[in-house]
Amino acid sequence: MKLCTFEHAGTREAGVLRDGKILPVSQVNAKRGADFPTEMLSLIESGAGHALQVLAQGLSAEIPLHEAALRIPYSNPGKVWCIGLNYKSHAEDLSEVQPEEPGSFMKPSSSFFEPGGAIELPPEDLTQEVDAEGELALVFGKRCRDVSLEEVPGALFGYTTALDMTALDILARNTRYLQRAKSFDTFFSFGPVIVTIDEVEDVNTLDVQTLHNSKVFSRDSVSNMKHRPFQLAAFHTRVMTFEPGDILSTGCPKGARIQPGDTVEARIDGVGRLTASVTRRPPA
């Protein structure tokens, strides 16, 4: 099942994507006598994803995708973990050595932007070298801790695409500045589609692409990650408890340096595509 949060005719709610059209969750409720939450995070927290999938069968999706605006699935996940240098190609691009354990950091909710919206580069006196990184992200579906590798699929709700930005010149000055280099406003987004875990037979066969100005800039297989998705999930649940809707973005093959006027896209066939334009915030 493919899910999204969309706006149409003055309403904003979750819906099921099917054949280029949207079936609103509220319509499933109305036609099936159900009471599914119509907000995406609440839907994930309810644990009712499979029941929605069953009851949505046989119902027609009637809102054409081009008549709706797809939004960030939800703007308030409890936490977002990201992984650095998980692909050899990315480490080589930055002349870095891949860490033996996952190199992880967190993104603040203030860094989010809407899919299809703008990455607003900070003023040049703060940073002049930013890259954009297309990534595969995991969406947790259950409250969990100390999850074994074999148990990970049961803890996940699904997969989505993500864009993560880095101020490379800040990071180059000192590796301790990583969190600051990653945390500017509009330096992260995910969605607009979340695919439930049953939609992807083997996550390790997916290809992750970053497109820069409509051309493929980097592409690599999840199978080439140093730490693969389920390993990352198991590792991080030993660090802290994960809640439904929490996100773990698994790293990028290679980031594209971006400038105002550019476009950038994260694309994963079978999962989705996330696009953005690039602007710059004027000096304060």
Overall shape: it is: globular
- Beta-strand content estimate: 35-45%
Detail the poorly predicted runs.
Answer: none
Q: First CA to last CA: what distance?
A: 45 Å
- The helix fraction, in percent, is 10-25%
Rg is 18 Å
For the biggest sheet, the summary is: 12 strands, mixed
Beta strands, count: 17
Number of helices: 8
Mean pLDDT: 95
Write the element-wise H/E pattern from the N-terminal end onward: EEEHHHEEEHEEEHEHHEEEHEEEE
Determine the structural class based on helices, strands and strand pairing: alpha+beta
Keywords:
284 residues; alpha+beta; five-stranded mixed sheet; 8 helices; 17 strands; 19% helix
Could you explain the architecture of this structure?
With 284 residues, the protein is of the alpha+beta class. The protein contains 8 helices and 17 strands. It has helices at 25-32, 40-46, 49-56, 88-93, 152-155, 168-173, 178-182, 229-237; strands spanning 2-8, 11-18, 21-24, 63-64, 69-71, 80-84, 103-106, 118-121, 130-140, 156-167, 188-196, 207-212, 215-221, 247-249, 256-258, 263-268, 272-280. Strands 1, 2, 3, 4, 5, 6, 7, 9, 10, 11, 14 and 15 form a 12-stranded mixed sheet that branches. Strand 2 and strand 3 form a beta hairpin. It is globular, with a radius of gyration of 18 Å. The chain starts with a strand and ends with a strand. The mean pLDDT is 95.
